[in-house]
Amino acid sequence: MAKKSAKSSTFIWEGKDKSGRKTKGEVEGTSIALVKAELRKQNISVTKVRKKSFSFGKSKGGKIKPLDIALFTRQLATMMKAGVPLLNAFDITTDGIEKPAMKELLLKVKNEVAGGTTLAEALRAHPQYFDDLYCNLVASGEQSGALETLLDRIATYKEKSEALKAKIKKAMNYPVAVVCVAFIVTGILLVKVVPQFEEVFQGFGAELPAFTQVVIQISNFVQQWWLAAIIGLAAIGFMIKKLMQRSKAARDKKDRLVLKLPVIGPILEKSAVARFARTLSTTFAAGVPLVDALDSVAGAAGNVIFADATNRIKEDVSTGQQLQFAMKSSGIFPAMAIQMVSIGEESGSLDEMLDKVATFYEDEVDNAVDGLTSLMEPLIMSVLGVLVGGLIVAMYLPIFQMGSVV
C-alpha cells in the first residue's frame, strides 16, 4: 500500500542571509524541519519558523487593484535606482504595504526570485496582476542589465494608464449618477407623496385632470410592481453582463456603439489614441522591435476597433511600410497623431514623439471630462427640476381648478 503524502502547509520564517542582514518570508512545506533544511540550502540562518494560521471568515486583505501594482512598481524602481539589491528592495517594499493580499503576493514573488527564478518568470506566475506587457518589459530589462530603468518606465506607464482610466470612469459615472438620482427622487415621490394627494382627491367628487390621472396611475403601478421591476432590471443587467463575458460579437458591438455616443464617444476615442501612443512609446523605448511592440499595443487597446486597427498596422509594418502610412490607412487616427509619428520616424525619435502624442490626448481627455462635469451639474438640476416640478404640478392642478371654479 502506497504511503500517503504529507499535506503541504504555509510557514512564516525569520532569519539572516549570508551577509548577516535580517530577512523574512513565507514558504510552502510539509514540516518545520524540512522548511529549515530548505532555507539552509539558500544560505539563510533561520531564527524562527511557525505555521501560518488561517482564520475563517476573516478577509485576506481585499482585492489587489492595478493602482497597487503601479505603486509597488514605482517603489521597486526607486529603490533599485538607489542601488538597493532586488531581494532587499522587495523586503523594504513589502514591509511598507498594509494590504495583506498585496503583501502575500509580493512575498510569493520574492521567494520565487530567491529560489533562482528570474523576476520576469516569477511575475508571469501571476498573470491576473502582471500582464504580458509588464512581464515582457521586465524580461527586456533583465536581459539588457537595465532593470531599474525599465521598471521606472513601467511605473510611469502604469501610473498614467490608471490616471486615464480614472478620468474615463469619471466621465461615464456622471451620467449614471444623474439617472440614478432621478429614479430615486421620482420613486420616493410616486410611492410616498402621490398616494397622500390621491386620498384627498377621492373626496372631490369631480373628474381629475388628465395629467393628474396619468401620474396617479403610474404611482399605483409603481406601488404594486416595484419589487418585480427591480428584480426584472437586475435580471436584465445580469444577463447582459453574462452575454458580454461569453460573446465576443456582443463585446465588439458594444465597443463600436460606445464610440458613436454623443459627448462620451469622443472622450473614449481620445483615450484610445492616448493608450495606443503611451503603450507603443513605452515598449519601443525599451528596445522592443516595432512589430513586437504593436502586439502589446493591440492587447492593451481596450476597444475592438483600435485593436483590429493595430493588428492591421502590424501586418503593414511587418511588410516594410512606415508606421505613419499604416496608421493613416487605418482611417481611425487623427491627423495630428499621424503627423507627430511622421516627424518621429524621420528624426529617429519615434518614442519621444509618441510620448508627446500620449500626453496631448491625455490632457484632451482631462479637459473633456472637466467640461462634461461642468455641463452635467446644471443638467442634473434641470432634470430633477422637471421631474419634481412635473409631479408637483400634477398634484396641485386639481386644487388650482377648484380655486378657479370657486
Automatic annotation (TrEMBL):
PROSITE patterns: T2SP_F. Residues 1-24 are annotated as: Disordered. Residues 14-24 have a biased composition (Basic and acidic residues). It is a multi-pass membrane protein. The keyword Transmembrane helix applies. It is found in: Cell inner membrane. Residues 72-195, 276-398 form the Type II secretion system protein GspF domain. The chain crosses the membrane at residues 174-194, 225-244, 379-399. InterPro entries: GspF/PilC, T2SS_GspF/T4SS_PilC_CS, T2SS_GspF_dom, T2SS_GspF_sf. Keywords: Cell inner membrane, Cell membrane, Coiled coil, Membrane, Transmembrane, Transmembrane helix, Transport. Pfam families: T2SSF. The keyword Cell inner membrane applies. Its main location: membrane. Residues 147-174 form a coiled coil. It comes from the Bacteria. Belongs to the GSP F family. This is Type IV pilus assembly protein PilC. It comes from Endozoicomonas lisbonensis.
